[in-house]
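note to self: dont lose this again. the chain is below, predicted strucutre after it. 382 aa total, dont forget to put it in the shared folder this time
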Amino acid sequence: MRIGIPLETLVGETRVAATPETVKKYVAAEHEVCVQAGAGLAAGIPDAAYREAGAALVDAASALSADLVLKVRRPAAEELAAMRRGAALVGMLDPFDRAGLEQLAGAGLTAFALEAAPRTTRAQNMDVLSSQANIAGYKSVLVAAEHYPRFFPMLMTAAGTVKAARVVVLGVGVAGLQAIATAKRLGAVIEASDVRPSVREQVESLGARFIDVPYETDEEREAAEGAGGYARPMPQSWLDRQKVEVARRVAQADVVITTALIPGRAAPTLVTEDMVASMKLGSVIVDMAAGKGPAGIDGNCVLTEAGRVVQAHGVTLVGETNLPARVAADASALYARNVFNFLRLVLPASGETPAQAGLKIDLEDDIVAACLMTQDGQIRRK
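---
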């Protein structure tokens, strides 16, 4: 097949969907790889590295007109216009955006959204949500440290002792755990909260204290177990008690990092304006759900402004919407491996007859079926 890797055009997107490492593997499998000149520069990958890996350097039109196009983000309208009907597309395509899927179907693409892969052991090496959330959790702490006007670690000097920063992490998925680990390396004192009791051991193993809110009913215990690796909506009775406990810890915190977000749902509100107002002057909130909140709210915090750094009640609120793009080299390397591992399921081996778009589309495979968004001009996602 002819595989195209175009330059990402979304403002602020610095990642690239293939690296010289994965290009070599595609070429070794006898595929022709076409990389748009400059596609990897923002991720620290020069054009020469792609050429040495066996790729041809082309313009945007040539990369987008390939049989199989690999992207980080969903194609913009002008990119879709350059893609040919019947081609295949693999990337992070926002599977919960119906209008966006309709555009892909209308363009006649066989499109696979990697965010839709099931959270199973077999799919771990192609789980783009986890690989990118891991990076986002790491970067969230560095961003917080950049805006925090004090040290993170405790320091004992001849001029006196500096206390360690107190960090509260709300939401302990992949991003939250990495945030805890990174803050610990910087010497902070950390507390973390999550609705799932199963994460307590993980939190404590990283050196943080788990903010415990006991469950009082069977309904609360059942909801707390979560589903598919994500938290489930908790009963209001438990949320009310958690809010009180978390508010107390937030008031004492120097840094708050919120990570609560379930794909396809609006981000829950975790930090109210009263909670922000209770924090010390100079404190920092990094809202990793920025841009994903319910109507009228941009993230986990009611005062977050997506894409902006703002001040409220003397607190700095960071609304970065694409933290992985700020660690472009490693984010691209991990993402490119995720893409390659997925393509091993759909790229036909030597002698196999592809079903459509030059691909082997086995709908009996749970990963392939889950990721297939559009085919034959129709939306296949249920």
